[in-house]
Amino acid sequence: MKCVLLSYQMFFYCLCSFAQTEVQKFKETQFQDKHMLKMELKDQLIKNDFTKLFMQTDNSVVYGFIGENYQRLRVKFISVTKDTSLSDTYIVYGKSMVKNNICEFHGSIKITNIRKLNITQHGCEDEEKYKGFKGQFFILGDYTFSENEEQKYTGIFNGTFRSDFFIDKSNHVIYDDIENCSDSYTNNQFVGQWIGYKTKIAKRCNWGDFRVPNSGDLDIGAGEFSPDDKYLKFGWQSRRDLMISQSEKNAKEAEEAKWWK
Question: Phi/psi zone of residue 135: left (φ > 0), alpha (ψ -120 to 50 degrees), beta?
């Protein structure tokens, strides 16, 4: 019995270690961005309200996966509010969906770093929209979201994230969609794990706007996110069907459904 218990503990430890390694590697990669300036700007910019960054994107183009078979995960932030006592912390309420199982969660986002890029993009199409803006930036941080234990198949999400923004000529923080016409465009990249309350098993769990970070061979799309055929049965079929025909009624309804309501 002791041997079985020890084996289980080692397995759990290895899974968590793998996820933490992925989280750490993601953070390190962001600090290696060749366009990033070295000066830390958290103290200067943390007073700004970054709430809108997390609420900007239509959920139909927020893609995510959980587990090694890239089972589709959908995440929706329903409310994000800045903590009144901690300027670097945001209180989050939302819902997750895997297959047909929908769970609510509560948690927080904590900003750890704010950096500026040394480039000045002007947009792919509407340059006037970004005229006079004061630079492109990104925030890095950590998140923890706890699902409702009274619901089925629930657990805790935790990991790291990156969100990109720019500051306009009126000093407002704006979601960075400047390069949204480029093939590799993404924002709000969340990288981490999900650990079940009952099973204690950790699963890789990543999501993002328009593209999924560290998605391996799941995404084979050139101009936009496109799931590989071998993963369609894990929740991605409607996405593929919609790509083939924008008028496919069932696929359109599935992709655009307000499933969190």
Answer: left
